[in-house]
Every structure is written in C-alpha cells, then in structure tokens.
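User: Watch each token:
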Amino acid sequence: MFVHLHLHTEYSLLDGACRIERLLDTAQARGDKAVAITDHGVMYGAVDFYKAAKKRGIKPIIGCEVYVAQRSRFDRTRELDGENRHLVLLCENNTGYQNLIQMVSRAWTEGFYSKPRVDMELLGKYHEGIIALSACLAGEIPRALSANDYPLAKEAALRYEAIFGENNFYLELQDHGLPEQKRINPQIIRLSQETGIPLVVTNDCHYIEQEDNEMHHILLCIQTNHTLDEEGGLEFGSKEFYYKTEEQMRALFPEHPEAADNTAKIAERCNVEFEFGKTKLPRFDTPNGQDNVAYFREKCYAGLHRHYGGNPPPEITQRLEYELDTIQKMGYVNYYLIVHDFVRHAKEVGIPVGPGRGSGAGSLAAYCIGITGIDPIQYDLLFERFLNPERVSMPDFDIDFADDRRPEMIDYVVDKYGADHVAQIVTFGTMAARGSVRDVGRVLGMSYAAVDSVAKLIPTVPGQNITLDKALESSKELRARYDEDPQVKRLLDMARKLEGMPRNASTHAAGVVITDKPVAEYVPLAKNNDSTVCQYTMTTLEELGLLKMDFLGLRNLSVIHDAEEMIQREKPDFKISEIPLDEPKVYALFTAGNTEGIFQFESAGMRSMMMQMKPEKLEDLIAANSLYRPGPMEFIPKYIQNRQHPERITYAHPLLKPILKVTYGCIVYQEQVMQVFRTLAGYSLGRADIVRRAMSKKKHDVMQREKEIFIHGLQAEDGTWEVPGCLRNGVDEQTALKIYGEMESFASYAFNKSHAAAYSYLAYQTAYLKCFYPRQYMAALLTSVLDSTGKLSGYIAECGRLHIRVLAPDINSSEAAFTVCGKDIRFGLLAVRNLGRGLIDAVIGERRQFGAYRSFYDFCKRTFDKMNRRSLESFVKCGALDGLGSNRREMMTAVPLVLDALANDKRRNVEGQIGFFDQPDEPNGAEEDFQMPSMSDYSTGDRLAMEKEVTGMFLSGNPLADYEHLYSKIGAAKIGDILENFENEQGGRWHDGDRVCLLGMVAGIKTKVTKNNSTMAFVTLEDSCGAMEILVFPQTLAHVSPLLEEGKALCVTGKLSVREEEEPKLLCDDVRAAADAESAQRQPPVPPAVPAAGKHVKPGLYLKVPNETDPAYLRAKKYLAVFDGRTQLYVVFAQEKKMFRAPASCGVDVNEVLLRELRGLLGNTNVAYVQ
C-alpha cells in the first residue's frame, strides 16, 4: 500500500489546488485507504478534511508543512531571516495534534515574519506524537545538499532525528522530473544509509489530475499578479505535482520499495480522532460562590416578577419552568449566565444593546434574565426554535451592540476570561463566479473589455449564489459564446475549476470564541492584522462544541441612544424603553410611507408595501419585515388582500386558524410551520424544528420520510404513538397532503419570527422618535452616516421635508456631531473633510474654555498649535468661519499670511526674542498688527463648489433647488445613491447596464478625438449627493453638444457602466435641459414601450424589456406584485418583438412610487402609463 503524505489542499491559499471533496472522491474511487493534509503553515482545512475522509471510509492524516526559521522565531533581520525552510509534520495521535496546533499557533502569534515560523525551540518542546518528514527542495536538508554542503545536511538530519526520536523522522524522496531533484536524490539515499534515518516517497501534491497543471499555474499567477506569458511568476517547472497512483509512485524509485512501504507504516501509526458535539463551555463564577443553577433560577424569577408582576399567570410560570429544565438538562446554564453577564455589563456602562437578534428572542428565560428585550409571550415566540432536546447543534445568542462601542465589549470579555481564552474567527473570501472569470481572464492576458463582456453575462440574483454552471444554463447569450468562441470556452472552463476556492483569509465581522482553557489548546490560531483568530470557521467551531458568540455592531442602536440623550436634555424622564407600542401617529407615519431613516423600512419597496398594508400594530410590522425579502415577496399581494378582506380568508382545516389568523391565513413564520406540525400531527416542537430545517434545506429524503409520519404518525417500539399523525387528529389524508405540500414550498422562505419581532421593535422605536422628536432623531441619524455623503444628503433632504433646517457649520455653534439648535439642526464638524476628531475636540474645547472666536485671526491664533494649512482651509471652505467678520476670499487669501506670521512669532518666542512686557506663552503678534486682506467674495457658484469639495454637499444653497420636484416626476436617481449602491460588491437596486436618468449640474467637460477622427465628450455631472462621469459618444454628441455648458442644469439619460475597481459611469444616449425635462415627460406616452404612433393606444401600464429573463425585469416584477390593482399591464419583449398582455388577475395599482421604481430599473423611455 502507498499513502500520499505530502499534499496541499485549497487551504494552501492560491497555491494548493487539491479541493478536498474532489480529492477524496478520487481517493475513494482508487481504493486508497488513507491520505494526509499538509497545507503550508496553516490547518484551516483539517476538520473539513477529516470529516470528508471519514465519510468515505478513508483514514485522514492530519499534518502541516511548517516554515522553520533560520535562527529563532523571534529574529527578524532581512539578511539573516528572510528565507525559511520547510518541514512536514504529521500527527501520530491526539497528543501530536495538540502539539501541532500549539506550534502552528505560536508560529503565527510569535514567529510571523513574512510567513508563520516555528523554530528549533518549538520543535523540541512540542515534538511528542509528531512524525516529521524532511520536505521538498525548500527543506533544510535538500537546501544544504543543493548548496553542495553534505556535512551540513547530515548535521541537520541528525538534529531532526534527535528532536523527534528514532523512526519519527523520515527523509523524503521526490521526483517531479526536476534536474535539481535528480541531482540530490542520490545524496538523500546516501544520508539514509549513513545515518539509518528511513526514506519515504512523497509527491508534494498540489493538484489532483495531471491535466489540472494549467489550472494550478493560473492559480499561482493570480497569487503573484502575473499573466501566463510573463516571466517572474511562480512556476513549478513540471507537470508532475499531482495525486499519482500507487503504481506511478512506486515506479519513481523501483530500487527503494521500502520508501513506498514506509508511507503505509506511517499511515498505520497516525490515528487522530476529533470529538464533535460535546459542549466545552467556560465556567461562569457566580457572586459569593453561589451554585450556578440556583443563581440562574433566582435571576430568572426576579425578571419574571419584574415583567409580569408578583403573581404571574400560571401558563407563563410553567413556560419558564419548562425552559429552565431544558436549559439545565442540556448543559447551557453557564451559557445563559455568560451572555447575561456581558449584556449586563454593557447596560451598566451605557453601551446600547439590542432587544434581540435571531431565535434567542423566543426564550422567556433570556427575556427574564435581561439578555433580550421583547416579550416572547405577547408575540407568540417559540423557545424550541432556539433550543430543544432534539437539537444537536449549539444554540446561538447573537447580540447587537452600538456599532461605535462593539470593541469595548470584546475588551470586556478579554479582561474577564483572559486574552488567551478569547479569539475572533477566521472567514474566507472565495472566488465567486464573476470574480473567478475576471481573475482567470487577467492571467490569460485577455483585454479588460473582453473579460468584462463575459463576466457581465453572469446573472446576479440577490440572496443567491449563481454558479458558472447555473449561469450557463440560465443565460442563453453566455451559453452561445461558450459554445462558439474557443477563447471564452477556455476562460469559463478554467474559471469553473477555480470557482468557490478560498482566495484570502480575513476576520469574521462578529464572531468571538470564549473557552474554558486557552483557545490554542482546542484549535490552531492565526493572526489577521492585529486580531488573533481561530483557524477554523464558525461552523467548525460549533461542531467542536466551542462557545461561539456573535458580537455585532448595529448603527441604529447608536442613533436611538444619541437621540434619547438629546431628548433627555429637555425631558429628563424620557426613556425609549417606556414608550407605548400602540401609538396611532406612529403607525400613520408607516402608512403614509414616510419611513426614510426608519430601521428596516426605508427602501422604496418597503414604503410602498406599508402604504398598501396600512399597519396598525407591531404584529403588522413583524409580518412586513418577514415578507419583504427575496422569495416570500411573491406572497405579499395575497397577504394584503387577505388583510383588507378578512372575510375572504379560507383555511384548509379549522385547526390552522388559531395559528395563521395573525398573518391572515398566510404562512409567514418558521414558528408557524412548527406549530402546524405540533397542532395537526402531534409533533414535539423540537422534532418539528428539525423537519422545518430539513424543508428549508431541501433535504428530500428527510422530507419524504416525514411526510408519511405527518400523515400516518410514528409508533415507538413499545407500541405508543411518538407522533400521532394527522389522521388520528381528525385531518383527512388529502387535506394533510395539501398542507404538507404548502409547507414544503414555503418553509425555505418562512422567516424567523423571533428575529423579525426584535428588529420590528427597533423599527417602531426609530419611527416613534422620528414622529415625536424629529429634530433629535434626525440629528442622531445624520451623525451616524458621516462617512456616507449619499446617505447624509438624503437625510438632509428628508429634514427639509420635515420642515427642519440643517444650518451650515459655524465655528461658534457647531459641535463634532450634528446637534439640535433651537428648531433647527446644526451641521456637525466631523462631516467636514480634513478635520480629524482630535482637532475638532481641541477647537471646541478652546471655545468652551475661553469663549467664542471673535475673528479669523483670533481663531488662527488660538488654534495655531493644532492646525495645519489644509485643515484651516477646510474650515474656511465649508463656511464654518463665515461669522467671523471676513468673507471666504479674504480668509483664503489670508491663510498663508496669518500662518506665517504666527509661526514667526512662535519662533521668536522660542529663541528668546520676547519683549519686557510680552507674555512668554503667547505669540507676540497682536490682531491689530495683522492686516486682513480686503476684497470681494467669491461668486455663489464658487462658494458652493468649495462646500461640495470639503463636505460632498452644497450647504449654503442648492443650484438644483428649482428642479428638486423633478426627481419623483421623471424618476431621476441621486448620484450619491448609485455610487453607494456599488460600494457593496453584491450591488442592490442598480446593476451594470441598467438605464437611469440623472439630474445635475455640469461641473466639467473634456473632449477626445477617437480613432475614427470623431469627437466624444467626458462630462462630469454633479448633484447634491455626488458626481459621476458621463460618456457622450460621437453620434450622441452631434445632437446634444449645444446643451453641454459648465454650470448648466441637465437631465441626462443612459446606461450604467460598471467596471471592477472603477466608479460607475453613465453611457449617455439623451440630454435635455433640466428646465425642459418635465415638459418632455408630459408628452403623449408613445415611447418604445407602447405600440407605434398612429395606432389606438389602450389605457394601461406599458413596459419594454429585452426578454423574460432580463434581471431588471425580474426585479421589476417584484414591485408589480406588491402593487396589486386593476390597471391592465402590457409588457413588450424587444428581442422577440412581441407584446404580452397580462391576465386581469395580474392588474397593477399604478402610483408615483411604483412609476419611480420602474423607471429607475428599466429607464424612463421603457415605462409608459396611458390613462
């Protein structure tokens, strides 16, 4: 038998290409009994590899190819420590595994220098249970032999044998056809003969089949940012680094069969076993050493009486007792206490904590002990959705903290449990479909445009991972290019091989592990920037039984907290936790669609849904939050119809009514699916949750088995009915089948009500604040989006709608954040570029201590030591110094003069040139000695341009103010919204190729002569939220050039062009003066979306799209489903040149919101409403 003992999986990032599942499928097909994993310096894939091998009946050998420092791991001198040596370490047993993770962890935390490095000290300390191999040409012994230093090689071999012990160190023989290996292999054999150190044959596998060599070369080029044709990239120089058969390996060294036999002997010795499912919670120390269970019960009952009074209803007490019993039996008392402790700490130090997140909000015990803040009894939330005896995985409390204070919470758990007991968690960025195409195309040397044209044919669906195989099935154009163009075929074939492989490792945004023993005793650690992270992913850590917490930062908690503090300055007794949840004015705000800035409810689609739904209670918000998602969105029309006409609701069986009445006959929540199983078939809620999970993950074997149980029941061995089944509960078989089928189809869409309830509660709080305390709320909201000009501009516009003025920055009134100023809001200085927090605090502190700034000179003099020229100019440009008696041109002219004068004064001060009566701590110069320039101010346009330069917005005026009403009328988009949309790689409302209309001022024009000797223009268009480059091609320019003037307000229509690592651009096809845009929209609706002019045009809503699978059309259909009404819908499919008349049942309620969304998605000329 031969066993591969030196192998690199995809977790040797951008180097190894042996994908674990495919590798082990290959090994199984060949009949291989064992395989090793030895990734470079990491153990990222060890557990995945172990599970996949065990599943196939193959022995997994856990190992790592470590980097060995030339001297100590603490030495970091480039000339002496820049080159490391490789060494393969294999775990013989669990002691060896423990020692290996210690070495790998310390290599990262103590020895990192370009690579994670161990040294002789670590090898000596942690050698027990380890079998070592001398590695490839990069090993210490092969390198010495390559340098013709046989004595050094021999000394190293004997040193390693002394460290690991006899028969625990082997000399590797490799032959990939490389000349250097041919040269040194005889010397390695000689070393073995002279020292008695045994030989072992390995193949340093980096890919599985020989034909994968090109794919592997491409992977290396991605790592080094080279093309295949370039010199200087990594090149193995051979096509032999693949997973060879036993026959191929033995044929390499036929004269040394023992070297191949030794692989089997090593494999026989290696026996590591991972323990899954056993929880390893840290101990929680109670005050005064009280018993943990007693302490937990005491805390829970105190909370029960606090929430429900001194004599709570018996059913609530019973529910708490049931939860306490389950928590204790399943061993999670400490878990609750640990979470309770850090939530308690957060509240004590004023860190805002969310009311709940995920299924944990369904636990009454969590509510009573203060972990969550929403009543699970009132909203019918299920504990079993979070924890039940049938559940095999650990429960998971995810906790939201104010985003700006999350680091404090991590510091708290580190202080409480010890730095070595807390670590963050690794996460991997993978090569997605489009990304792999772009990466491979770049390596193949294809032009950006050629690759981009292919990548853009890959569909994107929010919330779904579209693979290249799926893309080739769903995109006819992509399939055609694949079949017809050999270059595209090669590109996609290579991208398919790399798709899904991990590309880089980073730190999970929220995950934190807390352990009873040091984390490195359980899992290997690594370093990402300054964070210590577990090398295993969140899912793997849960499987190993470790306590994983999600510490999430939520911006809206900061907003609520900041608004509450501002309100309390006027109303000290106000508490957001005590607001009524049945305030009609708040629900009226939702009904009116005035939810800009409301948590989870501010998208246009959600606003539209609210206007149709007309919510009246929190339950309505919870349902909306659950339905407005990809998938369940298609059920919104039915939900709204049933809500408006409850008399029309029908139930498949009367037993469903108590469960579905709250959602008007629709299954909306996962909890409802569980309740249907319990009520109709007699399932325990725990078993019901398991079936629900199987349905959501489309586990067809489980679903088929449970269907029989749901209908006919399940009998235990003793003859009792474990599950009675529907038939025994009076539900006939046909009805049961129908209900089960509906649950099957909806289970993957149903949402976690506990999560929706907690987040809808937050949404209500934000709406309450906006309704009754709009100035405080909007000030807090503006402060929360300082780093997003688009959002800032949008919320300032919302302030205008609320009749709240946002006053320009003022050095004697502004604070760092946005603040309430009488009936207005004062602009916060943190929103001004080039002004850091430290400078702002110093400037404000000076003002508070010594009074208002009196003049420009006074301001400069008092802040001179903290200010540089760039910052001072930003204060001037944003208008913050306008109230100091000089205009902006005078101040900008004076900036270098006053700074020079103050610098000279300070220099004379330092050199001792101080007059008898001068103050030694101040510059000599007095204000009367400094002559401010006298000149006329900049033009209004120049002042606005300055403001936009340093804040991204116009502050003292708006050159587009006269045209603001056009945004809704013509469906124009804000530039800032589009730019923000593409900051997220997944995109959002807008996508590449979408037609959009922009309204803005021309800020710059450049022209260029094309290869065809035609002229095109590059126009910079600005609105109040941002700027975008508009490309006007020659044919279009010929018609619109008279309109292109700097400073002119234009309405520009065209297609978005989005390229990787570039700002979005607009490919222009139409330009109108903004003043003419509205009249153009009023023309009779005969754009391409409707039948040709001259024919009678029937009333209705007309859309024009390329085809039925067009992504923009698919998104548009979501909005059409929400706006259910009576207007006839017509869709023109341009490619097929046919018009589709929708059935009457698909009628539309046409309104301004719908038209704006449709025009934003499809383009103005592709949407027409004929009345």
User: Anything to note?
Assistant: The first helix runs from residue 20 to 30. The chain is about 45% helix and 15% strand. The two ends are 81 Å apart (CA to CA).
